[in-house]
Design brief:
The complex is a heterodimer of chains A (113) and B (111). Chain A is mostly beta strands and 113 residues long. Helix content of chain A is 0%, strand content 51%. Chain A has no helices and eleven strands. Chain B is mostly beta strands. Chain B has no helices and eleven strands. The chains are: A mainly beta (113), B mainly beta (111).
Chain lengths: 113, 111
C-alpha cells in the first residue's frame, strides 16, 4: 500500500502570496494532521481533521486554514505569506483507534522570499 | 503548554559505541512515540509506548516509557553509521491526540 503522499515537493513563493498544499492519507486512514517544521526544530502541530471536521488546532494565526475532502485527502492553505512561514510542511495520517499512531508523508518544502 | 525536552541536542559517536537519548516533560502523555527523520524527508515511526514503565525492544534499539508517563529514553546498542539521523520523541495528548514533539537529537555515527 502507498504511504502518505504530499504535493508539491518543493515550492517557492513571494511574501504576501497564498499557497495550497495537498495531502493524501494512507488507504483506510480517516484522520489527517498537519505540522510545520522549521529548520533545526521538531514539527509543530497546526491542524487535525477527522471525518471532514476540524478536531484540533495548534497555535497558528488565522492565515492558516485547512479542509478535508470526502475521500479523506486534505489541503492546507496559507494566506499572506511571511518569510517566517518558510518551513517543511508535514502531513500525517492515522487510523482513529487504539494507538492513534501517526504516519508522516515526505513533506512539502516551502520557501518564502 | 506542553513541552518535551530532548537531550542531548547533538551526539557524535564512533561505530560500535552505545548511546542513550532522553525525552522529558512535566506533562503526562497518553502515549509517546519515537521517530527517526532523514534530511528532507518526513519522520518515520519507530515505536509507540503506551503503558507507564513499558520497555520495547526493536533490534538494537530499546525504548522505555517512564512510570509516570512523563519521560522516555531511547538506548542504542553498538551504533552503526546507518543509525545516523534526527531522533524525535513525540507525546500524544488531547481528544485530537495531537503530537507534541521534542526538538530532536541529531545523531551522527562515524565509521
Amino acid at each position: 500500500d502507498a504511504g502518505v503522499t504530499q504535493s508539491p515537493t518543493h515550492l517557492i513563493k513571494t511574501r504576501g502570496q497564498q499557497v495550497t498544499l495537498r495531502c493524501s492519507p494512507i488507504s483506510g486512514h480517516k484522520s489527517v494532521s498537519w505540522y510545520q517544521q522549521v529548520l533545526g526544530q521538531g514539527p509543530q502541530f497546526i491542524f487535525q481533521y477527522y471525518e471532514k471536521e476540524e478536531r484540533g488546532r495548534g497555535n497558528f494565526p488565522d492565515r492558516f486554514s485547512a479542509r478535508q475532502f470526502p475521500n479523506y485527502s486534505s489541503e492546507l492553505n496559507v494566506n499572506a505569506l511571511l518569510l517566517g512561514d518558510s518551513a517543511l510542511y508535514l502531513c500525517a495520517s492515522s487510523f482513529v483507534g487504539e494507538g492513534y499512531e501517526q504516519y508522516f508523508g515526505p513533506g512539502t518544502r516551502l520557501t518564502v522570499t | 503548554t506542553q513541552l518535551l525536552e530532548q537531550s542531548p541536542q547533538f551526539l557524535s559517536i564512533q561505530e560500535g559505541e552505545n548511546l542513550t537519548v532522553y525525552c522529558n516533560s512535566s506533562s503526562v502523555f497518553s502515549s509517546l512515540q519515537w521517530y527517526r527523520q532523514e534530511p528532507g524527508e518526513g519522520p518515520v515511526l519507530l515505536v509507540t509506548v503506551v503503558t507507564g514503565g513499558e520497555v520495547k525492544k526493536l533490534k538494537r534499539l530499546t525504548f522505555q516509557f517512564g512510570d509516570a508517563r512523563k519521560d522516555s529514553s531511547l538506548h542504542i546498542t553498538a551504533a552503526q553509521p546507518g543509525d545516523t539521523g534526527l531522533y524525535l520523541c513525540a507525546g500524544s495528548s488531547g481528544s485530537a491526540r495531537q503530537l507534541t514533539f521534542g526538538s530532536g537529537t541529531q545523531l551522527t555515527v562515524l565509521p
